[in-house]
Structures are given as structure tokens and as C-alpha cells.
Amino acid sequence: MTALLSRAGRLSSGALRRRINTTRAKSTTTTTTTATATATAARAVPASIPLDAHTGGATVVSGDGATHVTTLGNGLRVVSERSPGHFAALGVYGAATAGFGHLLDRLAFRSSARFSSAEAMATIERLGGSIMSSSSRECIMYQAAVFPHDVGTALGLLADTTLRPRFLDEDVAELQAAVPWELQDFASKPELFLPEKMHEVAFAGTLGNPLLCPLPQLQAATPAALAAYHARWYRPERMVVAAVGVDHGELVRMCSDAGFGDGKGEEVAGTDGRGDAGAQAVAGGSWLGRMLGPGKTLGPGGHTATTGPSPAYTGGTWLDPQRDVDFTQVHLGFRSAGIDDEHALYAYATLQMLLGGGGSFSAGGPGKGMYSRLYTRVLNQHAWIESCVAFHHCYTDTGLFGVSASCRPRNEHALLDVVAAEIEAVASPSAAGRASPPQEQLLMNLESRMVQLEDLGRQIQVSGRKIPAAAMVDHIEAITLADITAAAARLLRAPPRCLCRATPTASAAFTHKWPPAMGLQPAAEPGQ
User: Fold this and answer.
1) pLDDT at residue 412, as a whole number
2) CB 17 within 8 A of CB 132
3) Contacts of residue 456, Cβ cutoff 8 Å, sequence gap at least 6
4) Angle CA(443)–CA(243)–CA(392) in degrees, nearest 5?
5) Are 454 and 35 in contact, with CB atoms under 8 Å apart?
């Protein structure tokens, strides 16, 4: 649900995506693709589970008959949802890790067993519509929106880029030349860089591993290493093919023709992973961890290794002194709940909407949050604050909730006090405020067929079931003021983390400001 409710401010992280609209666009990676936090709160009950003789898999039909899920013989799941319209949306969702997952995202829709890069590009141009790929810490997705008569062609293209890619020397060389520039550009944009750095400060390893492939791992990204990573992770039992606006029986047939039913679901033996540092992320208690089995995590090369359970949360601070900055940027965050904690998930989503926020200038209008607490109590009361926005990064078994704010230099001495006071205030029983109702935002977001598609694919991937919108609305309407204040109070029980990008003088001032403001212990590392 977090992904749906936060589409206006997409998990407060300004998600970057590759979108190919008749011509190839340079792809980018979402900093938080933690799509569809509703994945485990399902209440839909299958009406029937007939055996599908064509695929040898079981087909599950939702109680309202709108959603069909077929599990092929190799473990791959095919899911569809009825939705009338003039175009169809389809996607492939797979497991991935930070690092090498970013590189495979960049290599999407290039050379494969059936297409050269030029042929793939020509196919995309003929299809028109929209084709994109996106990777996050828990998932990599490939999506397309095309006319109904082009679904088979688009599905074949998705099948080749996910199942049968060819990692050519020239493509990898081009990638290794482009990624350093991307890393540099990414670091220059605080609205993208600071949420990413927040994960590194908040979690030791696991979710704290860099989402974009670091330079040392990039040098280890040889064609052989990438092929080994692909063989390890792109297994049918870890993949979901989803479609909206496509007949389910026809979709299953086209998946079989495209090769999605080929292969076996059992694990394959891989290399020892030396040099494949791109799969350092630990699955722990996440859905990836449950898939791998108890006590198993993801070692180098995507291989299992026995280590600790859930991602280790650590509070902390981080300073990034910069001499030439227009604004002081501050992110104050706390550990929250993940998708597995159903009730807390809805409470935090509602709390995010209640806090709201935005920039010092807004055109207003529906859904702008002009009457949220951060607007009425912060932006409208302190003219020197440039922006103040609540964010919530949600993952399977944990999350990050907080507020990002910015102001002109020389005003930062009071910025942290204002933000901290508002977080403490919302945890009190007297907390009140107005916000655009979450259920209205959710239903409005689901009007987008691509959002509906991603929601469908990710829910099936994570939990194997689909929550209807009506059930989400029921959950939201059941949230009380006591639930919201209790959720806010839980945030303050764990050590907070604070990030700041500011001038050297302002950074020094923050070092002295943190302990009295929020009990933070400065543990700053120098800016890179």
C-alpha cells in the first residue's frame, strides 16, 4: 500500500525509472523500489483451484473472479487481472540484489538469444507505447504498455531480455564506461543521494549495501560474472509474469510460447562467486530469505550463505560538508514496520499522509497536502524553511520513516529543532491534522494501469496473493487516532539517524546541535 499511497511523492524518494517511449532512453534505477507494501495483508480467498492441463500447473481464481494465477510446472507464476481499456499492460518481476541488479537493469533490452541490440531497439520502436525496466533492493521489474494486438510481441521481447540475455564484451565495456558518470551525477543530487545514504547509515550491510553498483564491484562485472549472477537469480520459481487487460488463458499460452514454461525450478550449481561482489545484500527475514530457506542469506554471486536473520538496524549520523551548496539538506529518520506487519503498515501509511508536506511553493489543488501538518505547522509558520516532507521507505520486514527538510544556509541552527518537535508532537494523544484521505489517494493511483500492474505483480511475487482495493480501504478506515499516535511513539523507541549536507560551518553547528535536540550521538564520517 505504501507504493500506492505515495505515488504523488513516490516513497518520498523521487523514483528514477527507465522509460523507453519509441526510442531508447537512458535508464535509471529506483532508490527505493519497494513497490506495493500491501503484499501480505491479503484477504482474497480462491474460489477454485482447477488443474490446468496445458501447463501442468494450478490455476487459482480470486473470489470475485477478477484475478487468475497459474503456477507453471517449473514454478513460474502467471497472473492476470481483468480491466477494460484500449491498451494492455504486462510485466516480468524477478528477485535481485543491490549492485549487480543495477547492472542487469542497465543491460535490459540489449543482445539476447533472438535479438541483437539493434533488432531489440527496432522492435521497441515498432511497438510504440512504453517499455521500461527498474531495479530495487528486493526486486527487478520489466514492464510494457502496448496495444492488445501487440501483447505477444512485447511478451516475447520481455522473455528474451529476462530469460535469454547475452552479455557481450562490447555491451559490458559500454556499461563500465557509463556507470561512473551515473554515480557522479547521482551523488550531485541530494534529493536522490541522501535517501540512498540513509539506508547505508541505518542498516549494517543488508539493506545498507549501495543500490547503484560501486566502482570496485563494477570492475568485477565481467560477462562471465554477470552470466553467473543471472543464472543464479533469474530462476522460474522466483519470477512472476503479470498482465492487466489480457485474457488469462491467452496469456498462459503466450507465456508457454515465449519460453517462460521452460527450465526447471530447482537451484542450479553456480561458480564460487569470486569477483561477483554485486550480490552482497543479505536477504535475512525478507521474502527472499524465506525463499532461500531458514538461516540462508545471499552471499557473493547470489549464492546462499549462513548468517544472521533480519537486516541489522543501527542508528547514526552522517555529515557531508560541501562548500558550494544552495540549501542545507537534513534527513531525520527512524525504524518503522515492514510489509509483514500488516496493521502497523497501514498506520504508518496514514501517518505519512497526515504529516504530508512539500515545498515552500505549491500550485495547490487536490492531493497537494496543503492542509497537512508539515504545511500548516512548519512551512506556513517558518518562512525560512524551503521544504519539509514526510517519507516512508517500506520493505518486506522493516522500513524507514522520517522527515526530510531543507533551508537556506545560516538558518540550520533551528531546522532540526522544528522537525524533531513535529515528530514528537504527532506521537502525543492530542495529535490532529488534516490530510488527503489515504483511501482516495489509493483509488486514484489504481486508475493508472501501470500502477495496477506493478501492484498485482509485486503482491503475487512477495506473498502469492492479491489484496483487492476494497480490502485496503477497509484496513485504512479501521485505523484510529490511537493507532497513529502509537505508531509514531514506536518510532521514537529506536535510535534515530540523521543526515546532513551543508556548508562546513553549518555542519560544525549541527555537530553541537544534535545531542540536545534529539539525543543523537554524533558519529559523522567525512563527506565523500
Assistant:
1) 77
2) yes
3) 67, 79, 81, 242, 244, 466
4) 45
5) yes
Determine how many CB atoms are found less than 10 A away from the CB of residue 153.
16
Query: Which of the 8 DSSP states describes residue 345?
Result: H
**pLDDT at position 111:** 92
Report helix, strand or coil for 119: helix
Q: Are 166 and 462 in contact (CB under 8 A)?
A: no
Domains of the chain with CATH codes: 16-192+227-272 (3.30.830.10), 313-518 (3.30.830.10)
All residues at 6 or more sequence positions from 265 whose CB lies less than 8 Å from its CB, including other chains: 74, 75, 76, 235, 236, 237
CA pseudo-torsion sign 1, 89, 46, 440: positive
Under 8 Å between Cβ of 330 and 464: no
Q: Return the higher-pLDDT residue of 82 and 241.
A: 241
- How many other C-beta atoms lie within 10 A of the C-beta of residue 294? 8
Question: pTM for this structure?
Answer: 0.77
φ, ψ of residue 316 to 5 degrees: the values are: 165, 175
28 HSE (CA, 13 A, CB side): 13
More confident call, 360 vs 399: 399
State the residue for C-alpha cell 534527513. Answer: 331
Q: Are 271 and 228 in contact (CB under 8 A)?
A: yes
Long-range (24+ apart) CB contacts under 8 A made by 467-470 are: 467/38, 467/39, 467/41, 467/42, 467/43, 467/44, 468/43, 468/44, 468/62, 468/64, 468/66, 469/442, 469/443
Q: Is the pLDDT of residue 44 over 70?
A: no
Which pairing describes strands 328-336 and 304-306: parallel, antiparallel, or unpaired?
unpaired
